[in-house]
Amino acid sequence: MTADLQSLRQRINAADERIREHVRQTYLEHSPLLSDLCAGSVYCKLENLQHTGSFKLRGAFNKILSLSETDRKNGIVTSSSGNHGAGVAYALKTLKQSGTIYVPENVVPEKARNIERLGGQLTYFGTDVVETDAEAYRFAEQHGMTFISPYNDLDVVAGQGTIGVELLHQMTSLDAVFVAVGGGGLISGIGACLKTALPGIEVVGCSPQNSAVMMASVEAGHVLDMPSLPTLSDGTAGGVEPGAVTFELCSTIVDRWVSVTESEISGAIRLFLAEHRMAVEGAAGVALAAFQKTSTDYAGKFVAIIICGGNIGRDKLQSVLSESLTPGPAKPAPGR
């Protein structure tokens, strides 16, 4: 295990050098309100302020820059529920390359339009990201193009892990990190980076109860094929590809899992908007809500919460805000 994580850490360090000129080192903001919940020090890593409004840009750039010039010219294919597609589209436009981006038919409209604004060519297929991934991979194989998985690729994982590199520079002490989990690329990269530097750190995986496929799969000991219910956290929604490299990484890296309800997610989004004056997407709300739910377990600790993205649609945000005009923290309770 240690050797595997050290190898991944080396890839993360290489990724950090490779993509540094193309991505922002995002701001780490102290949260007085969240700190008060645990009488500790809580900081929010603002990936919502990254180019394209999401951390996904990091993995996209690292993967594309890792390819040979010939592979890039042959074309890129990817699949995405929105943010990864936007990251790939941004990277391709920056590097003057072309590609096709598959999205599920139920993709959030604002995220689809964002991909198109960045120059991405969209193809709609399926209603679950696993179906969309499989079709995009089939198309890439058929046309001799390179498929870039949103999470099932160590170069993508390494790119996301550069957030961990930044955290190590930005925080002198760190006891726990809260990360939203879909396919597991983000938590695998960040967790591998931090655990090789801080072996005692607690890596907390956060999932919406309506779509906690990776969490349930790790608990079962194998990847599960299970349905997902609608969730505000569309960025983490859907299944996990069988044989995904992130399954073993999550099984090794994640120390604790916390699931949250839709009400807790919406409450966390409202709280962050009220306290930090920023609208964040559902996946970021998942990590925030998971901390709120377990805050009393981190008394006196130094905690980082990954605010993974800010791409929330106008209608969805209006719906969240209409639920309550008075934001407030969720009641602390033991996490799963």
Describe the fold and architecture.
- This protein is an alpha/beta fold and 336 residues long.
- It folds into 2 domains: 2-54 and 155-323, 3-Layer(aba) Sandwich (Rossmann fold), CATH 3.40.50; 56-151, Rossmann fold (3-Layer(aba) Sandwich).
- The protein has 15 helices and 10 strands.
- A 6-stranded mixed sheet has the order 1-2-10-7-8-9. Strands 5-4-3-6 form a 4-stranded parallel sheet, with helices on both faces.
- Helix 10 (185-197) links the parallel strand 7 (176-180) and strand 8.
- The two termini are 24 Å apart.
- The relative contact order is 0.16.
Topology of this protein?
Blueprint: H1 2-19, E1 28-30, H2 32-38, E2 41-46, H3 56-66, H4 69-74, E3 76-79, H5 83-94, E4 99-103, H6 109-117, E5 121-124, H7 129-142, E6 146-148, H8 154-160, H9 162-170, E7 176-180, H10 185-197, E8 202-208, H11 213-220, H12 245-253, E9 256-260, H13 262-276, H14 282-294, E10 302-307, H15 314-323
Parallel strand pairs: 2-10, 3-4, 3-6, 4-5, 7-8, 7-10, 8-9
Antiparallel strand pairs: 1-2
Helix pairs in contact: 1-3, 1-8, 1-10, 3-5, 3-8, 5-6, 8-10, 9-10, 10-12, 13-14
